[in-house]
Amino acid sequence: MTRIGSGIAALGIVVLLTACATGGGSSGPLVGATTAQTIGKQYAVTAPIAYSRFQARQIGAQVWTVNGPLLDALYLYEGLKPGATLLGAPEDAKLPRVKAGMAAHEVAELLADTLRVTGASQVQTPDLAPARFGTLAGFQFGLSYVAQDGLEYQGLALGAVRGEELLLLYFTAPRLHFFASCAPAARQVFGSVTLR
Amino acid sequence: MPRLHWHMHDLPAAGAVLSRTTQSGPGQWLATAFVGLWLLTACAAAPPPATAPGAAPALASDEAGLRMQMQRAEQQIATAGNRVRDPALEAYVRDVACRVAGAYCPEIRVYLLQVPDFNASMAPNGTLVVWTGLLLRASNEAELAGVLGHEVAHYRLRHSLARLQKTESALNVLTAVQLATLFGGVPLAGDLSTLAAQGYLAGFSRDQERAADDVGLRALQEAGYQPKAMASIWDGMLAEIDAAKEPQPPAFFATHPPTPQRAAGLAAMGAVLENPNTRNETAPDRYLAHTQAHRADWLRDELAQRRYPRTEVLLKRLATTGVRPGEVAFFQGELYRLRNQSGDDALAIAAYQRALGGAGAPPETARQLGLALRGAHREAEARVAFARYLRDTPTASDRVMIESYLAPAP
Questions:
Q1: In sequence order, which ranges of A65-155 are alpha helices (DSSP H)?
Q2: Smallest Cβ distance to B82: which of A117, A141, A148?
């Protein structure tokens, strides 16, 4: 995989193009707060606002967005098995991979190094702390980085390990305006996780 | 001892070099052969006339068009997200470049880009771009000066213009412009390795490389640097490439062929140019002092590439060049942890412990040791390491997470 110009935010575009080209997913507005959305076989969440949803089967995730994936993107991974990467492309040796039984620090590193490989710089994952992932003991951390075009991004992540699989949600948006605008809804989604 | 001047346009001086080399005693025959071959091939290249300091191309010329393209690319580089925004470091690199650029110094604008590969390039409008992978790998100021002198030589010899004029179709013109801008780390389209695979570019650049080696090494010597420095940084990269066995060479070497013959030629020419009456400065302490604050970030970028054989060679080299032992040992531990092969967990623990016993270990060393010990089910030792981390890093943003590891099991 070659460098993606705007770091992980550009993943949204890749996801959309891939989904369109392969017919690999479904999309459409989500229903509001009352309807639980299942994410793979492991868990479900509830959306507090209407999102557009793109199902990216190649990376095993759904991408939810309000303003478009470059401006706000919520990634909901269905359950990452050992050997998987956050970007699919399993043949790329550079991409960090999921391991069985990852520690919270390793998951933060997985996301940070994925960003670095895709061209982001000044990547930080601050405020790593324990958090509930539904009823599971999980962890949360913040995220900040600068995309190749100079745009500063901020984000949040929530994860847990269940069996051999890594369950991961993360949200990212430009620090200016969009993070503050969309992060509260993302936090509500994080707080709505119910295990299946 | 008279100062030696030699250049591809200066055959009498070349003869003087060969004569002096032969008189230097046994063991110099190989060097003599390399230097002679080098000069002969350089003479055959017939490069375009060099530009004079401060000269501007005619408005309607190809060169003016190329400069205009580069001005656009320079604007992108100036605002790039991965530009290293450290004025002091940028000024230092510019000073080093100016020392080897001499009268061309006012035309140079330096940009540092956070890219973990070995690369530097100078565009036809004076934009000098240096990637942090080069700054990480240079072990002293002279090695950096050697690479920068080489790139300034490309500028002085107007190689971008020659490349443009040799192209025969609109597609090739586009490719040449793309190549020029790609060196700045701002790819307009495509991928460097793909472009470099095109035969006409690779074949074309080798003569230019010899010429730039020639001019660049002379500039290095005239600036008072150790002229063998260019060969030593080349040797370091050759060792990395040998260890990596990667199908594509690092970006810089796509157009700067890293053959053993070239390394030997550089070493031989450096030995010839070494003058006991000049400083032959390498300045490792000054170089390390200017780059120290960034090295850990650059090493994290390097490790994120997951090219462990190369990184292992690099770390071994850094250990011999004055980088603090605790810092090197910590990143060796990180390499073993990430590589995760059989036995690497024990190697990582040993490396972290070694780091904590040496100067320069980053604050997170004790935490990483704790996590590694925890992974090895050595809970009591892990708790000691975590406690040390919390004691030594009271403002750690992951404090709550670490405290949760220390809490009694429910």
A1: 104-117
A2: A148
Q: How far apart are CA A109 and CA A148, in angstroms?
A: 20
At residue B50, does pLDDT exceed 90?
A: no
Of B157, B123, B255, B161, the C-alpha closest to B199 is: B255
Maximal C-alpha separation, chain A: 42
Q: Which residues contact A101 (CB under 8 A, 6 or more apart)?
A: A161, A164
Task: Map residue B134 onto helix, strand or coil.
Answer: helix
Nearest to B81 among A99, A129, A150 (CB): A150
Of A69-73, A85-89, B297-301, least confident by mean pLDDT is A85-89
- Which residue in A121, A141, A156 has the most chain B C-beta atoms within 10 A of its own C-beta, making it the best mutation to test that interface? A121
ipTM metric: 0.84
- CA-based nearest residue to B212, from B249, B161, B162, B256: B256
Q: Cα-atom radius of gyration of chain B, to the nearest Å?
A: 24
In the prediction, which pLDDT does B395 show?
Answer: 96
pLDDT over 50 at B59, yes or no: yes
**Cβ of residue A150 closer than 8 Å to a chain B Cβ:** yes
Half-sphere CA count of A5, side-chain side, radius 13 A: 12
- CA-nearest of B74, B72, B200 to B126 is B74
- Residue whose C-alpha is closest to residue B303's, from B332, B341, B326: B332
Angle separating helix axes B199-222 and B260-273, nearest 10 degrees: 20
CA dihedral sign of residues B357, B361, B367, B370: negative
Pairing of strands A136-146, A129-133: antiparallel
pLDDT at A66: 92
> How far, CA to CA in Å, does A47 sit from each of A31, B12, B211?
8, 81, 64
Nearest Cα to Cα of residue B160 among B97, B79, B73, B229: B73
Planar angle of CA B334, A100, A59, nearest 5 degrees: 95
